[in-house]
Write a structure and sequence with these properties.
Length: 244
């Protein structure tokens, strides 16, 4: 059984009590984002942590997870479009300025880089924080992703949404931030079974490619649905590739 710790604090950036859970004792830090309605322990309940246990127990990876605060509001259509956009932007700032410093403190390193990962809306968040904060995140594993939340959830984003959504801000990205992002890697995987949206993966990949950002799209077979058994196979496979 992987070593587990948990912490909690109030974040003014999202006006919410938040939780950070860690599994493991050593290795590359991986920040795993939940699905839309998930909390910091969703990955354990859905047996994804168990699927990652060989990497965790070998000391190759420490896995961290947070509550899907913004994802819950988006999925439940809580509040106005403006509020949900504000929360999505604030959530990513909370990740960069609160969660990552907590991870670095736990790893006893002020500059250790993190791998972001997630499925479904969690893939949106993994891609977003990596594209937005490439000085923090060295790679992203995006599984069965949904990258256009306006289209998916039927809401109209504002400036906050623009700042937080790669499909919105990447076309205009230039300068040192783009130079840093070109040193990173984004892996985009999807199944071809039920409830999957392959076009979403290719839309993001084509945009990344047009900006010179290293990425790879991996289609899995028709037996791989938009569901946990698919991600149980995908994530250990990709982390085995990305972590030492």
């Amino acid at each position: 059984m992987a070593t587990k710790t948990a912490s909690s604090w109030y974040s003014p950036r999202i006006d919410h009590q938040t939780h950070l859970v860690r599994w493991g004792h050593y290795g590359c830090p991986v920040l795993l984002f939940p699905t839309a309605g998930g909390d910091a322990e969703e990955a354990e309940r859905m047996h994804l942590i168990g699927a990652l246990s060989p990497l965790i127990e070998a000391g190759r990876s420490k896995v961290y997870c947070v509550d899907s605060v913004a994802g819950r509001a988006l999925a439940s259509r809580s509040g106005s479009d403006e509020h949900r956009s504000w929360l999505l932007n604030g959530f990513e700032e909370y990740i960069a300025h609160e969660v990552v410093p907590a991870i670095r403190a736990d790893c006893h390193s002020d500059n250790i880089e993190v791998v972001a990962a997630g499925a479904s809306i969690g893939a949106f968040k993994a891609s977003a924080v990596t594209c937005r904060y490439p000085h923090i995140f060295r790679a992203a594993v995006c599984m069965s992703g949904t990258y256009d939340l306006e289209k998916l959830l039927g809401f109209h984003g504002n400036g906050d949404y623009y700042l937080s959504a790669p499909l919105a801000f990447l076309p205009n990205l230039t300068g040192s931030l783009l130079d840093q992002l070109r040193q990173r890697f984004i892996l985009i995987a999807y199944g071809q079974g039920r409830w999957e949206s392959p076009d979403e993966a290719w839309r993001l990949a084509n945009l990344l490619g047009s900006k010179g950002v290293p990425n790879r799209v991996d289609p899995w077979g028709q037996q791989y649905d938009h569901d946990w058994p698919t991600w149980h196979e995908m994530l250990p496979n990709y982390l085995n590739e990305l972590v030492d």
